[in-house]
# Entry
Amino acid sequence: MSKLRLVCLGYFVVLLGAAALNYVPGITDEEGRAFGIFALDLFDDALHLVSALWALAAALISQRAARTFLILFGALYLGDGALGLATGSGYLDFGIFTNGVLDLPFGFKILANLPHIALGAIALVAGLFVERE
# Structure
């Protein structure tokens, strides 16, 4: 299996873990926030699950499918994280439309958006530069 397909399998595992966060005892606080930061709801869980299944399908289908997943997923998640960092709301969960710009402490915005920024950036770099033919 190629490196890109293995990266997609890694994303499958990570995203499946993100989808499961709300359902593991001790991870969420009394306000329902994972690690006291992420307020994940059923829509967020579904988004992570669909993304995980997309990553798995890409890994199993082909090298080209893996590259396409990594580039598209990377761009979408990196953009969502960057918007969340700037405004406190992302677009993947429609937060920018339902909540608008939020006045949150910058440190909180960094912690809340770092997963999407990191996952997006790593996927985008892998999709663009790993195993180029």
Observations:
- Residues 3-129 form one domain.
- The mean pLDDT is 89.
- The radius of gyration is 15 Å.
- The CA atoms of residues 85 and 110 lie 6 Å apart.
